[in-house]
Amino acid sequence: RATRRIDRVLMPILALTVMLQFQDKFSLGYTLVMGMTKDIGMSRAQYSWAGSIFYFGYLSCQPVAALLLQRFSVIRYLYINCFVWGVIMCCHAAVQGPQSMLTLRFLLGFFEGGLIPCTTLLTANFYAKHQIVARSAILQCMNGVSILFGAPMAYGLLKNGGLVIESWRVMFLILGAVTVVLSLLIALVLAPSPKEARFLLADERTALDDMLKQTSVDATQGKGDARQQVVEALTDVRLYLMWLLPFAVSITNGGITVFNTALIQSFGFSSAQSILLTMPSGAIQVISVFIYVGLFRLTGTRAAGAITCLVLSVIGGGLVVGGVGNQAASMTGILMVVFYVQSLACCVAYIATNVGGHTKRVVFATSFQVAYAAGNIVGPQTYRPKDAPKYVPAQIAILVTLSSALALLVAITFFHWLWNRQRDSRGD
Predict the structure, then answer these.
(1) pTM over 0.90
(2) What range(s) does the Major facilitator superfamily (MFS) profile domain occupy (predicted)?
(3) Is 2-426 a domain of CATH 1.20.1250.20?
(4) DSSP 8-state code for residue 235
């Protein structure tokens, strides 16, 4: 009963927060075909940096987030950051030149940078190990849901000729205003742990606390020995394997997030059509959740679904590279590529379920964020202005990075199998 109540209260708010964060990032891709670059005099090179500089801010946030999440309530940190990034999104609507846009994108990245550590800690605090995989996958699929909502909004604004200001400015105002309202909802409703959750009844708090002590990796253990846990994390080979995988995947993600609409337009579609044709990629991200969770329940391992989704992504990358000049093959490929998102969900779920100790888990989550940010910084830079409009070298980069990610995930799976076998032989 307590878990159902948490699913009705905590999960929708976290899901909406993740959805808005992704839409903030993906909205930049819409602005390219909505005319923003012409309106503010931004070159294609500057546009690529607008995608990358977001993640410089994202990366700069990580040590700050790790420190603040040790000292303050995760909910306080989350709602303050959410409020600020909503205000920053509204400020995007007032941009008149490239420099101010670049500055705002950096600030937006900085204040959004702590979201995944927050969601990782909150899911670990409220759910047992076996419950976290499905919840992490749901949060990850909100990226796809955001496209299903964002694309029609951008299309409607683009086609509406009666707006007082440019359509892309209205889009930023809408996203910013909704985010500010959401921050107030987080502050009023959510709590950092079941013991403080006002939306749970007293007997539910007690029952949930007892269950989590027996079935979860304790998110609060070891807070008093933070230095030792940092050393443990830095000497754990898993930390480095789990860094390389999201880095490789995020190179593709960074480019797709910023240039997806432009790539689709290069296949021979109009500006309005290219916005609408991002919607199937959102639906595929949602479908990938069912594949990931279904295979997890069937096999009992997270790797089965994540590997399957990455194989589909690699096939999609091959179609993109091999289908240059073939509209159907290129479009099918670019849609299949987005199956990679479940490899990121696998990493997040692993950190929440297999890393014990609050400080150690924060280090792992922060390392994941650093890898995610670094890959997303590199991604847009593979789309060089001289390669427009086809961006063939960037298409090749998609195939190479996804293939590398697949090899890394297989290696991680093998190492975990080996470690578990050694642990079982010792009788631990």
Answers:
(1) no
(2) 10-428
(3) yes
(4) T
